[in-house]
User: What shape does this take?
Amino acid sequence: MRFGLLVQHGRVAALPQGVLSAIIRMTKKCSSYISASPILQWPVHQTFYKTFCIGSEKPDIKTNIKELRAMGLDGIVLAFARESKFGSGEKPAVLTKEDPSLREWVSMNLETLDCLTNNDYIALRLTGAGQAAVAEMDHFSQQDPTSVHYKTSLERIGIFGDALHEIFTVASQKGVKVLIDAESSGHQPAIDHLALAAMATFNKNGKATIYNTYQMYGKVHQSCY
Assistant: This one.
């Protein structure tokens, strides 16, 4: 499932809670088998996929977007909804500019942008960029800005920032707005840093391209009230 659309039709939500919970558990447990079997894919595509995803290939995505615009909807939101696997017990690789997961994540978000036009939106979930990127965000989020190691942390997280810059540049050129998702408190300091740095570059002359998400229920944001 490569692209997600923030529109729901209620097909899945109408299922009884017990049935829905059972389907979710089965899908998580058997995801690798489902991906390899067209027969098992069919019920997933007819329920969850049609409800939460706009398509798996560009022609389908563009056709469905055209139908939404014909209904009078404007400002389509697309997201490459990949999740990185956590808790595998494996030590993640050190993040580099050529990190395969990072490069794939950037490439897929650029493909997502190719389906969007002026005044549309792309939502970014930064933890989808791979285990090395997530480990770097974790490391940065734990640093004290007054420590001697903070400068090194800035340089390391800057690799991720450079990758994001590629996405933000294309989005700005196309007039597409970027919505950066809020995530767990362990990642959020790094996400906020990356978002604010991008805002300083791309949000100028009274025009905003980058939008961050602030969890106002969190104690860290209590000074904003």
